[in-house]
Design goal:
With about 550 residues, this protein is mainly beta. A hairpin with a 2-residue loop joins strand 15 and strand 16 (about 275-285). InterPro entries: DUF6923, Ig-like_fold, Secre_tail.
Length: about 550
């Protein structure tokens, strides 16, 4: 790997690439393990050697084609669909702020020809830093070209790191200090970052003109585990010290990952400083079933590896689930997923000064069970019924869906179950017996039994309402209630089901004006409950501006 997760300030030369494989591009043979490396450290010339192996248990790689790239290539994986390797590189330019954090995807052939497939998309979850004074407009998220792989379906996986609003403010303060002659240190912390695990489907058919503007899906990574958090602390501290120069030399973080063909979990390797020593540990996470959900990253075993004392270059699995790592000093061997310990030997890969940089691509790609990527889940109140609709992406895989309903947004019960249908992306269900106000959520069960839930949708069915509430769009904190009962309790709830206002009403006529407190703008649910237990509850949905 190229040290770590470089965020800003990467200056790379520009180069023209073809957007389709050249006629001379040659695929890799089946069952080939690949090491794509350059001799030397990060600053070494980008002269790459493609070395291959048919037995990943041995530290022997046969050198093959060589080529020179203007970019540091990394994050590679072998695609079993077309037998090319796919990797990425920083292509940003600090002289062009709008492209400063660009990372492009490449298709690389066995004879060293490579194709630019366009800019890797970001999740769109992070803020944009804009400053006319600084001449900067840049979204504060960057794909990490240190870590990438391909699964058996031809889907490319990569990680991405973003800077939250809190970190954006710190970067702005840093630049303001530089511009005013009163420099302040950059003080980013791990809490200013968000990490993502993203994927792109069907990269074998992709060109630069068809690269999507958003990933097919993504998970956010929970890195609160002390080991992973420690590796990011090391990274952030160095980032603050070096910013905005030489950020490509930062150590730390999750430096590569691969999918285990046996248990389909994602495994990686982290390095961090323990005192004066650089130590390393394997990590893993089980992907959730719904895109956008949170995946918890855990460290494996108890062994903190002080040898070889350098960063990892790449990881890979064999078909039996054995995990291997290549380190920046050229050593290679197994990573025990139970104890976390290493068993390393020297390799035949070329080094300079005892150093190399690069990555591994495994022939044992896993048929990784992609989650059900939920595109949307919404509903509509009809005459005496509620219609629920949901849509999934066309590459989703699952077992079944279940519509669950609640009267209070807290206690849900199963209402309808529907099997997942391959090739079907749009589903619907109609609740023929809704309450005056109903809360719905979609439960998704994956092939392996994992369960995830959608957001909650609240629907008010006016056909079942014995009360009249007006106006439904309120700007003066006043609302009118017309009800058949003369005494009732008026309650107001937000869409999370939390009561925000309550008032006991006793009226002489059918209509009462109620003054509401100052509330945040948004949608709310009105609930009318008569004092007599036999009286029917009435509800309505309003908007406060």
């Amino acid at each position: 790997m190229k040290k770590s997760l470089t965020l800003l300030g990467v200056v790379l030369c520009m180069h023209a690439y073809t957007n389709a494989p050249s006629a001379s591009a040659q695929a890799f043979p089946v069952n080939t393990w690949v090491a794509l490396t350059k001799a030397g450290d990060n600053a070494a010339a980008k002269n790459y050697t493609i070395s291959t192996s048919t037995n990943p248990a041995l530290p022997v790689f046969i050198p093959g084609a060589t080529f020179t790239s203007p970019y540091d290539l990394n994050g590679i994986g072998m695609n079993p669909v077309d037998h090319y390797i796919y990797g990425c590189a920083y292509t940003g330019n600090t002289a062009q702020p709008s492209s400063m954090l660009n990372v492009n995807l490449y298709r690389i052939a066995s004879n060293g020809t490579f194709t630019d497939l366009g800019k890797l998309p970001k999740t769109g979850q992070m803020p944009t830093l804009t400053s006319a004074q600084m001449g900067i407009t840049v979204n504060l998220e960057v794909p990490n070209f240190s870590a990438g792989t391909v699964d058996a379906n031809g889907t490319y996986y990569y990680s991405s790191i973003g800077i939250k609003e809190s970190g954006k403010n710190k970067i702005q303060a840093y630049y303001v200090g530089v511009l005013t002659g009163n420099p302040v240190p950059l003080t980013l912390t791990v809490s200013d970052l968000r990490l993502f695990f993203c994927w792109l489907s069907n990269v074998s058919t992709m060109t630069s003109s068809t690269m999507p503007s958003a990933p097919t899906g993504y998970y956010e990574l929970d890195v609160s585990n002390p080991v992973i958090n420690g590796s990011l602390v090391s990274f952030v501290n160095q980032f603050n010290t070096l910013f905005p120069n030489n950020l490509n030399n930062i150590d730390g973080g999750i430096q590569d990952f691969a999918v285990n063909p046996i248990d389909f979990k994602v495994y990686g390797y982290v390095s961090y400083f323990q005192g004066a020593n650089l130590v390393g540990r394997p990590v893993s996470f089980t992907a959730p079933t719904v895109s956008g959900a949170l995946a918890i990253v855990s460290s494996l075993g108890t062994t903190a590896n002080t040898v070889p004392g350098v960063d990892i270059a790449g990881v890979q699995f064999d078909e039996f689930g054995n995990f291997y790592g290549l380190f920046n000093n050229g050593s290679y061997g197994t990573i025990n997923l139970t104890t976390g310990a290493l068993s390393l030997s020297p390799t035949t890969l070329p080094t300079t000064g005892g150093q190399l940089r690069g990555d591994l691509a495994s022939a044992a790609t896993a048929n990784f069970p992609l989650p059900v990527t939920l595109v949307s889940f919404n509903g509509q109140a009809l005459a005496g019924a509620n219609e629920l609709r949901w849509e999934v992406s066309n590459d989703s895989k699952g077992k079944d869906f279940a519509i669950e309903r609640s009267k209070d947004s807290r206690a849900f019960e199963a209402l309808h179950t529907e099997a997942f249908q391959a090739g079907t992306t749009k589903y619907s269900f109609t609740d023929l017996n809704p309450a005056a106000v109903s809360y719905y959520r979609l439960k998704t069960t994956a092939d392996d039994g994992r369960i995830s839930y959608s957001k909650t949708v609240a629907l008010v069915n006016k056909a079942n309402n014995p009360v009249l509430v007006y106006p439904t769009v309120i700007s003066d904190n006043k609302i009118n209630i017309t009800a058949a009962t003369s005494a009732y309790t008026f309650s107001l709830y937000n869409l999370a089901g939390q009561e925000v206002f309550r008032k006991a009403v006793s009226q002489s006529g059918n209509t009462t004006a109620i003054a509401l407190p100052a509330l945040a703008a948004g949608q709310y649910i009105v609930r009318i409950q008569g004092t007599d237990a036999q009286q029917v509850t009435g509800t309505a949905q309003i908007v406060i501006r």
